[in-house]
Design brief:
The structure is a single chain. This protein has 250 residues and is mainly alpha-helical. The chain has one domain: Up-down Bundle (Vanadium-containing Chloroperoxidase, domain 1). The longest helix has 34 residues.
Length: 250
């Protein structure tokens, strides 16, 4: 389980990133030899086995993360300008930061993957019989040639890390769901294993990158002298929620 307070996962830093890039390229190269076998085997499962994966795969849809967070961000940005100085304005500002972090931390890696999958133009597994694994239509293509990397996997793992940075106690559960989402993309025939692994890497590194940018600006996170990045929390927002809950319960 990764240490979520580290600046980058698995000891990655500015000096050793070429070694990590080479290792990733090696992993993907090895996995390519298993892509067709794993994909075709899982796609051949009975429908009863595939049903749970067809259900969990929607966790990788970006809309359910991006649309609510964008709405909260816009409304908070408007309301914070209308409120006078005080607890409620500080709480609204914190709500805007939380929503903004979720939106950018999940949305930017997703945008990068959408551009990459159009650039690579890899055929999806459902076309394997006709085209094989290595048929490409770069740039000008439709969804059937947008297999690498997996967008759902990117969104799922990005959401897991973004939420884990702020609520680490729930990280294991969300990470498990994200991993199952990635596997589901292979089971239902939308992606090869290499597509999923690439999506996981981009989603995770993208979430770390956005978290580090926020920390440099002291938005929600703080860079500590020991080199770790800690979540500063949203104390004013918690106070408001506690006050509203107490009033509702009274």
């Amino acid at each position: 389980m990764p240490n979520l307070t580290q600046r980058w996962p698995l000891g990655l830093n500015r000096k050793n990133w070429p070694d990590f890039a080479a290792a990733l390229a090696g992993v993907l190269f090895v996995l390519v030899f298993f892509d067709a076998y794993v994909s075709q085997t899982l796609m051949a499962w009975p429908d009863a086995w595939k049903a749970p994966f067809a259900f969990v795969t929607d966790f990788g849809l970006s809309e359910w993360v991006l649309i609510p967070s964008l709405i909260v961000l816009i409304l908070s940005a408007i309301v914070v300008r209308l409120l006078p100085q005080g607890l409620y304005r500080r709480a609204t500002h914190e709500a805007a930061l939380v929503a903004g972090f979720i939106f950018v931390g999940v949305g930017l890696p997703g945008l990068a993957v959408n551009l990459l999958k159009r650039l690579f133009g890899r055929a999806r597994p459902e076309l394997f019989i006709d085209t094989g694994m290595f048929q490409f239509q770069q740039v000008f293509n439709d969804w059937s040639f947008q297999s690498f990397p997996s967008g759902h996997s990117t969104t799922a793992i990005g959401t897991a890390f973004v939420m884990g940075f702020m609520a680490p106690r729930y990280f294991r559960l969300i990470l498990l769901i994200a991993m199952m989402t990635g596997i589901s993309r292979v089971v239902i025939g939308m992606h090869y294993p290499t597509d999923v692994v690439a999506g996981f890497v981009i989603g995770a590194l993208g979430a770390y990158a956005i978290r580090n940018v926020f920390a440099r600006r002291r938005w929600l996170f703080a860079d500590l002298p020991d080199g770790t990045v800690r979540f500063r929390g949203a104390p004013n927002l918690r106070k408001v929620w506690r006050r509203l809950f107490q009033r509702a319960a009274a």
